[in-house]
């Protein structure tokens, strides 16, 4: 792979010309930049994608005007996608993670009483890919109405699988909205337990909204925004015993205003794990004349932030849709969306050096305005995937879109760049946040239902 490959990366999504014939052996593991779509007509907000092994991608999507969510398996070198719809139409899926050979997902379910309860589910990937009678398991989580993000991992030196999720409980007294769920499953005994914890706001006028979760080398880390304050809270938990909250730090930014609307999740805080138990945290902000994305690097247990970068935009109210880190290239990737000078929404991929402490030119790829990308994830072999939708040129129907691309080792040589530099700013001020409180321990049994499995061909456009 030489620079000749990388020089075409920035062209792909801008052109996005689809070939309407099936391919036989195009590969995203070889020297290809690949974009694919299938005939699944879909909403613009339900797409996510995660890697599974070396040659599979697992995706989440949803048909328009249909309540059933579906998971998909895209295999390298194949021309069809395996799709499984949840039979239960009352389940809304918010997030999923792949761990070992299992997909864990979370969201909410509408009960017979007409109220929502948070749920955690799982399914075996091998059974899903083979089709037939593939099934998924589900657990209702008491004291929650929706779970929005999760991580899954194995407790060190044990047979216990931990699933840690964050979410909320609506319509409660005292604004105690935030919910943490710690679920553990012993694969030898088959016993599953969970406990719910909740955050107490620092005062009656503030609400803590839990917005992202990450797994570092030794810790579970969560990030939340404190409304209406210009502040965020970082909490850490021991991976061997995540019920043990190790640190809670409240970071305030007195000279900045975070973007906010009536929807506290429209401009969320994002975090992702870096190397050696550090994280990157991003949030959209303004200091009055300038609009920017603030990216901070910190050790999650410390009140000291290593560095903070401001990515300046000509655009207004830029929001980070997703952020992920490539340890192979030491690059931090952000998928951003913004209102470009009042002329409509513009999306871009920003590639940063997380270790930078001085100003430098931002590398960015401007994406086609026809497509609506919703999710980004880093893949093995210095690649990343984008998931979203693409409109049909005449019918206006949106189709599921997936793009796999290489991370350029020298982005400035092969990507469009912003004219503005990053800036290094005064670091946020940290204080201790209040600890979490517990609900009672709950022991449960998984309930099962079947997928409705089908498959569909997909078309690609790829560049050598």
Summarize the structure.
The protein is mainly β and 464 residues long. 4% of the residues lie in helices and 57% in strands.
Search tags:
464 residues; mainly beta; disordered N terminus; 13-stranded antiparallel β-sheet; 34 strands; single chain; 3 helices
Which secondary structure elements does this structure contain, and how are they paired or packed?
Blueprint: H1 3-6, H2 9-15, E1 33-41, E2 48-52, E3 56-62, E4 69-75, E5 80-86, E6 91-99, E7 102-110, E8 116-124, H3 125-130, E9 135-141, E10 146-154, E11 160-168, E12 178-186, E13 192-198, E14 207-215, E15 219-227, E16 231-238, E17 241-252, E18 257-258, E19 270-273, E20 279-286, E21 291-298, E22 305-313, E23 316-326, E24 331-339, E25 345-352, E26 361-366, E27 372-379, E28 383-391, E29 398-406, E30 417-424, E31 429-432, E32 437-438, E33 442-444, E34 447-463
Antiparallel strand pairs: 1-29, 1-34, 2-3, 3-4, 4-5, 5-34, 6-7, 7-8, 8-9, 9-34, 10-11, 11-12, 12-13, 13-32, 13-33, 14-15, 15-16, 16-17, 17-31, 18-20, 19-20, 20-21, 21-22, 22-30, 23-24, 24-25, 25-26, 26-30, 27-28, 28-29
Describe the structure.
By secondary structure, the protein is mostly beta strands. The strands form four sheets. Strands 1, 2, 3, 4, 5, 6, 7, 8, 9, 27, 28, 29 and 34 form a 13-stranded antiparallel sheet that branches. A hairpin with an 8-residue loop joins β25 and β26. The longest helix has 7 residues. The protein is globular. The protein starts with a helix and ends with a strand. The N terminus is likely disordered.
